[in-house]
C-alpha cells in the first residue's frame, strides 16, 4: 500500500452545530482539513435544531449531516415521528444518515417507554429511506441489541453503534446483523486496555473512527474541547491495537465511512 504524506481521515460523528464551536467554527474546520480529515459528519441530537445542523453542512463542502433526536432530548423533541424524520432526511442532499437515536438508561428521569418509541420511529425511517442509522446506547446494551435484531429480521437496514466501548458480546451481535462500530477517544485512554483488546480482534472493515466533538477529547488532549482534528490520535490508537500503520487504518476507516454513508461522494484531491 502506498505511503501517504497526510492520512486520509473521516470523522464519522461530531457536533459542529453546538455553541462550543460558534466562536471559531471556520478555524476548527480548517485545522481538521490540514490534519487530513476529508469528511466530517455533524450529527443531529434534536430535530428542533435540525436547521442549524443542516446549515453547517451546507456551508462547508466536506461536512455532511444527519437528522434525528438523541434519547436524552425526548422532553424537548415531543413530536418525533417517522414521517417527520423522513421528510427532513429528504430536505437536503447533505443529509446522509438518521440519528443519533437509541436508548440511554443512565439518566433515570427519561421515560424508557418514550425512548423505545422514538428509537422505533428512527429505525423505521432508516428502513424507509435506506439511509444508515446512528445508534446511541448507554446502560442499555441488551435492550438496544434486542430491538435492533428484531427490527433487522423484519426489514434490513444499515447503521453504526456510535462511541462503541464494549462489551464484546454487543460487538458480535451488532456485527452479525451487518452494523458498524465507531471508536471514539475512549480507545486512547490509559485505562481502556479492555477496549483495545476487544478491537484487536474485530474486523477492521467494520470499524469507523469519530471524535464526538466537542466531547470525549482523546489523549493527549483530555481536558480540552474536542474537535475533528484530534481524530489523528484515535486513528493512531486504532492502528496500534490492530498492529498496522496509521496511514492504513486511516484509509480503511475512510473506505468504511464511504461504504456506510453511501450518499457521501468519493473524495477527490484538489
From TrEMBL:
GO terms for cellular component: cytosol. A divalent metal cation 2 binds at residues 136, 162. Keywords: Hydrolase, Metal-binding. GO terms for molecular function: DNA nuclease activity; hydrolase activity, acting on ester bonds; metal ion binding. InterPro entries: Metal_Hydrolase, TatD-like, TatD/YcfH-like. A divalent metal cation 1 binds at residues 13, 15, 100, 212. The keyword Metal-binding applies. Gene3D superfamilies: Metal-dependent hydrolases. Belongs to the metallo-dependent hydrolases superfamily. TatD-type hydrolase family. This is Hydrolase, TatD family protein. It comes from Candidatus Endolissoclinum faulkneri L2.
Amino acid at each position: 500500500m502506498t505511503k501517504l504524506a497526510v492520512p486520509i481521515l473521516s470523522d464519522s460523528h461530531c457536533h459542529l452545530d453546538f455553541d462550543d464551536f460558534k466562536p471559531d467554527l471556520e478555524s476548527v474546520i480548517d485545522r481538521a482539513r490540514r490534519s487530513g480529515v476529508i469528511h466530517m459528519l455533524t450529527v443531529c441530537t434534536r430535530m428542533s435544531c435540525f436547521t442549524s445542523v443542516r446549515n453547517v453542512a451546507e456551508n462547508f463542502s466536506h461536512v455532511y449531516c444527519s437528522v434525528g433526536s438523541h434519547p436524552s432530548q425526548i422532553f424537548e423533541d415531543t413530536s418525533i415521528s417517522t414521517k417527520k424524520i423522513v421528510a427532513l432526511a429528504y430536505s437536503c442532499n447533505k443529509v446522509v444518515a438518521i440519528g443519533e437515536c437509541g436508548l440511554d438508561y443512565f439518566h433515570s428521569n427519561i421515560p424508557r417507554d418514550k425512548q423505545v418509541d422514538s428509537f422505533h420511529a428512527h429505525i423505521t425511517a432508516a428502513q424507509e429511506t435506506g439511509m444508515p442509522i446512528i445508534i446511541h446506547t448507554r446502560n442499555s446494551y441488551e435492550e438496544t441489541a434486542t430491538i435492533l435484531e428484531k427490527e433487522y429480521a423484519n426489514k434490513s437496514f444499515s447503521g453504526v453503534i456510535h462511541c462503541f466501548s464494549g462489551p464484546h458480546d454487543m460487538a458480535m451481535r451488532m456485527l452479525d446483523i451487518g452494523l458498524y462500530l465507531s471508536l471514539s477517544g475512549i480507545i486512547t485512554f490509559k485505562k481502556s486496555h479492555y477496549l483495545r483488546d476487544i478491537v484487536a480482534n474485530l474486523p477492521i472493515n467494520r470499524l469507523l473512527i469519530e471524535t464526538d466533538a466537542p466531547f470525549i477529547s482523546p489523549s493527549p488532549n483530555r481536558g480540552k474541547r474536542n474537535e475533528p482534528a484530534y481524530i489523528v490520535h484515535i486513528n493512531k490508537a486504532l492502528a496500534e491495537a490492530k498492529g498496522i500503520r496509521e496511514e492504513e487504518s486511516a484509509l480503511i476507516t475512510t473506505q468504511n465511512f464511504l461504504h456506510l454513508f453511501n450518499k457521501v461522494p468519493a473524495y477527490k484531491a484538489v
